[in-house]
Design a protein that fits this description.
The chain has six helices and seven strands; from the N terminus they run βαααβββαβαββα. It is of the alpha+beta class. It has a domain of 124 residues: Aminopeptidase (3-Layer(aba) Sandwich), CATH 3.40.630. It is globular, with a radius of gyration of 16 Å.
């Protein structure tokens, strides 16, 4: 994908605005999956959310986006049928430093496997091209091997290993902080074009 390509569309996916009426109804079902629930609530106990709780979370995200202007939320939809499969959430944009944190959550594991790499490319293209950041960070718990592979496949580099920073399934796991610079992203695109 060239950096000057269509900003919101990939081969199979498109990025779209959040629909506060429809999207929570889809996402609430994904919270019954412990892996998904822990991804969207990394600092609290994972649990299935009610529709009311999910809508409240959406309101908080929207309020934060409007008030602080340091976060952005989008949905990933399949181009063929406009089905919602996941979300891109950009947190803590530091405009002064050109730095942001990215969170990608795909609702169903098979969709993560099939479309995760394209979702990552679309998200990074948006961050580096439209938001004009210089660095993107992602946190990944040690047990999430697929997300770790997704980060490394996109060119992210492990910057920090927070030892035993998250608890799951009766044990403590490390939490990895990955980072990707704009120059590294562009170099990766240039390599893909060869």
């Amino acid at each position: 994908m060239k950096i000057n390509s269509q900003l919101f569309e990939g081969r199979y996916l498109q990025i779209s605005a959040i629909d506060p009426d429809q999207d929570p109804q889809v996402e609430v079902n994904w919270t019954y999956d412990l892996d998904y629930s822990q991804e969207i609530m990394p600092d609290g106990p994972a649990h299935p959310l009610t529709l009311f709780e999910m809508k409240k979370q959406y309101e908080e995200w929207q309020k934060g986006a409007e008030e602080k202007r340091d976060q952005f939320n989008f949905g990933f939809h399949l181009r063929e049928d406009d089905r919602l499969i996941g979300f891109m959430r950009v947190h803590w944009v530091s405009w002064t430093n050109g730095d942001a944190f990215l969170q990608i959550n795909i609702g169903e594991p098979e969709m993560q496997t099939k479309y995760g790499a394209e979702a990552m490319r679309l998200a990074l293209n948006y961050l580096f091209q439209e938001l004009n950041v210089f660095r993107v960070g992602m946190t990944v718990p040690e047990y999430n091997l697929e997300k770790k592979s997704l980060c490394e496949g996109a060119g992210f580099v492990l910057e920090v290993n927070r030892k035993q920073a998250c608890y799951r399934e009766g044990r403590l796991w490390d939490r990895y902080l990955y980072g990707l610079l704009r120059s590294e992203f562009l170099n990766g695109l240039a390599e893909e074009e060869k």
